[in-house]
Amino acid sequence: MIQKKICLLGASSVGKTSLVKQFVEGIFSEKYQTTIGVKVDKKALIVDDEKINFMLWDIEGNDRYNVFEERYLRGAAGLIIVVDQTRASSLIEGLDIHTLAKQVTSCPAILAINKSDLPSTWHLSSQEQEAYNDLFSLQFNTSAKTGAQVENMFLALAELLLKDKRNDVTTK
Predict the structure, then answer these.
(1) Which of 39, 104, 107, 120 is the Cys-Cys partner for 58 at CB 3.0 to 4.6 Å?
(2) What is the CA radius of gyration of the chain?
(3) 72, 86, 96: which is closest to 145 by C-alpha?
(4) Could you write out the three-class secondary structure of 98-146?
(5) Which of 97, 102, 98, 105 is closest to 76 using CA atoms?
(6) 169 pLDDT above the threshold of 80
(7) What are phi and psi of 56, to 5 degrees?
């Protein structure tokens, strides 16, 4: 079995914990609880007949005054930068977090635009959208509430990591 550490990063209240709960337990709760530090969950997946165990590090929300602990990213195989489509400021914060994270790790990053069940307040030009699309390996519009695209996002990340692993083996 392959084990991979996945870190979820983003501003406060974008839905990181809710995405993990939806993926691991298949549930959504309206009750908001702030994550302090980091909460770790795990879930096993089968991808292309290989078992992969995700260790999901749900890292406390970040803002300009509270930047994540770099040590939480040590050993990460993938990052999920979560933003809230009802708060344009969360995209800016997510991009800042991505920049900081990429200073300490080179692992692939996914952009999860969460709360797709609610109307978007973003008004991005095609140039702005293209600029941030190039930063991420994959992008998903998710809803932790309805479960839309949550499973697909984690499966796609698992496939990406397994493909990278196979490429590492064939190039050595």
Answers:
(1) 39
(2) 15
(3) 86
(4) HHHHHCCCCCCEEEEEECCCCCCCCCCCHHHHHHHHCCCCEEEECCCCC
(5) 105
(6) no
(7) -95, 115
CA distances from 146 to 49, 84, 143, 167 (A): 28, 15, 5, 35
The CATH number of residue 78's host domain is 3.40.50.300
Structure tokens given for 64: 């300009």
Q: How many separate domains does the chain show?
A: 1
Q: What is the pLDDT of residues 50-68, one digit of tens each?
A: 999 999 999 988 766 556 7
φ/ψ of 27, rounded to 5, equals -130, 160
What residue type is 145 in one-letter code?
Answer: K
Closest CA to 16 of 55, 59, 53: 59
